[in-house]
Amino acid sequence: MGLPVYRIVIKERDLQQMENQIWSDKFLPATFSNGSGSQSVQIRYRGGHTREYPKKSYEIRTSRATYHFNAEHDDPSLLRNALSFHFFNKIGVPSPATQHCVLQLNGVNQGVYLRIEAVNQSFFRARKIQVRSIIYAVNDNATFELKDIDTDKSKSSLFSGYSLMKGTGEDRMRLIRFIKNIHAKRGKTLQKYLNGRLYMDNYLKWLSGAVLTGNYDGFRQNYTIFEYKKRKAYGILPWDYEGTWGRNCYGKAVASDLVKIRGDNRLTAKVMAYSAYRQQYKRRLEDILASAFTTQQLMPVVRKMFHEIEQDVYRDPKYKWPLGMFVNEPDVIHAYIENRRKDIRRELQNL
Questions:
Q1: What is a single Pfam family found in this protein's UniProt entry (predicted)?
Q2: How far apart are CA 160 and CA 297, in angstroms?
Q3: φ, ψ (nearest 5 deg) of residue 121
């Protein structure tokens, strides 16, 4: 039995407008169906450099929900995002639900896609998490640094690198103050501040997941900050984990030890400066290594996903890799898990 099929019908002039203006974020009207009735939706292209690919990704807004249909064009397995979010959910970090599917556009097969739940107010409501603000880390400047990563000069705004998805100007200013304070405060004062403004259990779980899956880009962008309403502290969850499990975001094979155990942004460096947090993080990693991050736990998930999409990948007209690579991807992921476990065990000795 094949994957579910989603069908998009859009007027040719609107489709041509999207093609002519690939960087536009303007939504256009379309009709959307999955075999059980159709509905009116709004559609646009989404992503960064991937908008220039022949297999593009889409954001689709229905009257009740928003979904991202990711082409996963740079991932030979088409599994890495789905596997990553499955793993993060297993270790207790709220992460988007996913579903592999086939996408048709005006009757033409576009190939295998990954439908990803949008991280918005509905996402948190469904998980009974009350949030005050939702902020996306949208580019490499989302490092909690005072300086621009490209120019090494002071940022014109400390909100550079971020996009406010839910909240007000006060929520924007609160994140700016947080970034200022983690640089200005020292010693026990900073530790107390971090303990109050950062939900440390969530942060260390997220850090563990980013480090174990090997998302090199996951510390400077590709994450969502949310502020717990009652706790009044920041939490973090993952986004865009295509470059993981042994490959980078362009699908190139990378060494399993590319990402260091302490991650790579200023906030993580501040947290890791305290022995109490390092010990807490060490215990968290050891727990995950003993439970969720094993081939015994993960490979059945990989094989199930692989077999579910296999036949439709062979029929995907826009799959860009040799099919032999796709067939071998479960082995690539298996080897990565085994090697990554050794890397982390080795680094834990010096944490």
A1: CotH
A2: 39
A3: -60, -40
pLDDT tens digits for range 205-222: 999 999 999 999 999 899
CA atoms lying within 13 Å on the CB side of residue 58: 29
Contacts of 238 (CB under 8 A, 6+ apart): 84, 85, 88, 93, 95, 206, 209, 210, 215, 218, 222, 223, 224
Identify the three-state secondary structure at position 131: strand
Fill in the amino acid letter for 183: H
Taking the CB of residue 126, how many other CB atoms lie within 10 A of it? 12
Contact 165, 134 (CB under 8 A): yes
Give whole-number Cα distances, 187 to 111, 130, 184, 191, in Å.
Answer: 54, 31, 10, 6
d(CA 166, CA 118): 13
What is the per-residue pLDDT across 89-123, written as a single tens digit (0 to 9) for each? 999 999 999 999 999 999 999 999 999 999 999 99
Per-residue pLDDT averaged across 238-266, rounded? 95
Per domain, the residue ranges of the chain are 5-117
**Cα separation of 105 and 41, whole Å?**
14
Give me the amino acid identity at 305.
M
If one counts every other C-beta atom within 10 angstroms of the C-beta of residue 31, the result is 14
- Return the pLDDT at 98: 98
Q: Can you state the percent helix, strand and coil of the chain, rounding each to 5? A: 40, 20, 35
Helices (H), ranges, the chain: 12-20, 80-90, 121-126, 169-184, 187-197, 200-213, 266-272, 275-290, 295-314, 323-348
Q: Which residues pair with 162 in a beta bridge?
A: 137
Burial of 8 (0-12, 13-18, 19+ CB in 10 A): buried
Residue tagged 């690939």 (tokens): 22
